């Protein structure tokens, strides 16, 4: 079989890209023992489909009865055509203010093809339906059930330089964001831009929280007002910032260019009243009926997870504040153990239901399907992340004395476990408002550290252990009946690296967005109980930004460089948490404010329901007033992206006007004599007839 060197093109490669033998994508293809003939037939069809759309392939052996299909564009003309049509589609759909130049050399000179754009158009060339000019490959389904996945190879030179830059700089700038965008696409670049903006804004609540904790203590009205104001300003700033970035990156409105979902099941085809094209139709009323199932789904989440969290919290209250018998120091860990074991189990089951429900809703596009799934995931994450704190703030603190009798169930259970004839000691139950502060410490410090370890270090250790185990197994197999994979010497190191990348997990930026949105919720909803939360988040996010880079570059497969014009459905989640945080913070301060300035922070007052409701009412109106004021102020500010868009539109209008005006001037110059016009027309017609005669004579001679 031909060497990988045959895949090289004459173009100048990006730094580090030549280490991948100019390969664009890798397709792991499984050939099971059972159904081997069918798998081999599917393999031939796969190669034919790839070649038919202008791609070239090379095949090498993988691990565990699999093949590695290496794919790249067959010629620069194929790539140029795909990029041109992609940019033209963007312009037609309003994502670009200026259409691409028909002179491809000039167009690519003014706007070079980035590595991310190249990889994206190649991926679409493989996965788009055949009626849209693609190969129609959908991994794991139908004809392509033996196609494990499709993924691009890491550019290790870029990754190494990127991590070095990230680790040596305090903040990342626009140059770094453009590098991320050109390598991993706008979807990943938007995440890092959001993280950087969020990190910068965290400086203000961190400073205010430290000052509040040092001077005023917990449950401060002043800090509550500041956090509410901060959350509104950040949310409105980011809404404007992502529009600015989308314009600068040329992707504004790109979410309207949605990719069809291969799993979409249509009922019939109908003619589009605007375009006249035949489109696939699914009844919106059927989808609405399925979407209504989200209500019982949300209730089921609240019932299952809420019952689990309320049960464990009541058990923890009994053990820590009522029970005073033997083994108390060990029993205090019991509720945590139950939550750690049971919560992921229930969450996994409910997550599976959420995915199934989203599939039943049968969306036409990938973006719509993803947004619907994120909404359901947000409900799950909201309950898992905040239910314990809501229970403490709005059940335990205001109604703790009324709930004490219900703790007798735990008392009875403890008595049964106590040896016969012996009684365990108890202590008087006293509501402790500091409990919510202790919980916030856990969620903002302990949980963040644990998450960092499980997210970054654990996958790396797991990968190393698995590699060692496979090497041992390989040695044992080679000493027996097995056959070692023999690679060409010049390709051996490269192929071993590719086989390792095949076994990496797929990176999903949704998980990182979810983590940051949940953190924002802790800050806006409950940081009044522990004002140092923002300080911890500031430190955590500096590390998180760099650990995410490591996760993308080392412990995960290289993501498909998708485009995006915003952070997607997570923007609505931020807005909801910002609004709810204002109400929650005001209510918590009303319930937990100290008796007097000289009293212990967090000591309980004789709160009244009307006072809590009034504080919530005023907080909401404060939020709405601040939001309106911030929007008015920001509307007066002109951002670089908006200026760029205005300039491009102005130049385009100017060009069109100049062309039309010149045409009118030429017509007026020819107007003085009709005879002159007729003479010119006659000459043009005679020349066209002469050229047609010459072309006809040429065809006759060829025949």
From TrEMBL:
Every Anoctamin transmembrane domain range: 180-648
InterPro entries reported for this sequence: Anoctamin (IPR007632), Anoctamin_N_fung (IPR049456), Anoctamin_TM (IPR049452)
GO molecular function, one term: chloride channel activity
Keywords per UniProt: Membrane, Transmembrane, Transmembrane helix
Membrane topology label: Multi-pass membrane protein
Record-annotated membrane-spanning stretches: 188-213, 219-238, 292-310, 330-353, 378-399, 520-543, 567-589, 609-630
Lineage: Eukaryota, Fungi, Dikarya, Ascomycota, Pezizomycotina
A Pfam entry, by short name: Anoctamin
Domain Anoctamin alpha-beta plait: 23-147
Top-level taxonomic group: Eukaryota
Protein name per UniProt: Transmembrane protein 16H
Localisation per UniProt entry: Membrane
Main subcellular localisation: membrane
GO CC field: cortical endoplasmic reticulum; membrane
